[in-house]
Amino acid sequence: MEQLNKLEKTFSFGSKRSQNFVFTGIERTQLQDSTIVLSQEKYVTKIEPIHIQSERKVQPELSINAEEKLALRAIIGSLQYAAVNTRPDLSSRLSHLQSAINTATINTLIEANKTLHEAKRHKDTKIKIQPISIQQLRFLAFSDASFSSPKQPDSHSGSIIMATHSNITQNYSCPVNAISWGCKKIQKVVVSTLSAETMSLNATLDQLSWIRLFWGWLLNPNLNWKRPKETLNNLPTTIAAPTFKPIEPSIAVTDCKSLYDLVTRTEPPSCQEYRTQLLARSIKDLLSEGITLRWVHSGAQLADALTKVMQATFLRQTLELGTYKLHDEHAILKDRASARSRMQWLQSSASEAEKT
What we know:
By secondary structure, the chain is α+β, with helices and mostly antiparallel strands. The chain is built from twelve helices and ten strands. It has helices at 2-8, 41-45, 54-57, 66-85, 91-99, 106-121, 193-219, 228-233, 257-264, 274-287, 313-321, 329-355; strands spanning 20-23, 26-30, 36-39, 127-129, 137-146, 156-165, 174-185, 250-254, 291-295, 323-324.
């Protein structure tokens, strides 16, 4: 309340509420440990499905009419409000639905109702904002992409950016607070998974840089945000407040091993996609501004559910627990290599046994 009173001297307030209240359809609760929980359980429950006439359900490939398109836009808009504020697990499904509006069929309406059913089935999904010391706060960004296929003709990129504790670099389990996420169709033509992943990571790093610059400005209003590249390069030394330690590098995460190698290795790239090589060069420049790139296996990729229509169980569980842990990529790759070698040895042994 003390901080609110200070703000009220500059900005006029209407009613003031605390601890537990609903604002713009978002239920906000502050727990005893100062954790803030954001939920839209009641909001999602009230969204009505699209009514589809029974005789039209048996013709899923039939184009929708003007009334049905209006209903489709309405349900997408309602769910999008939830996805933007508290439900990142819905982002991919909605992105695919939005891409299909102009060519929508009865099957699109059915998929929209399935998305609503999924939203209601997991209506208790929440966003937790846990307390993290300012001196130990850093950012963790996940980037992923899906490559086009006959079933899904468009490639999509997904990202989720979280605030976490600096111990995340030591591979400890740390609190994570989702602060930005999204899924969108990749507008440019991509010719491979590597190309899609590179475009997605480049866009994620661009957003991460903006967040870091904004955070630095919050800590130091005198920060020179008009010269972002120079400021980001020297961000650890531009925080003037004496109580703050220098800002440590943020972390970007990818599960694309070929992209990780392309960006982190020093030898000449073996990639034959020249535009992808240029984007990789751009990524290296962004990483040099205080960002470390880490690799994780696909099972630990939080942005996976933000790129394709799939079960978002891992993402929802992480949001529920509010913690995440990185693992040493070199040890994981070594284990993978060892397992691969053992399989090759077993196969060759079996082959030799058959000959004898």
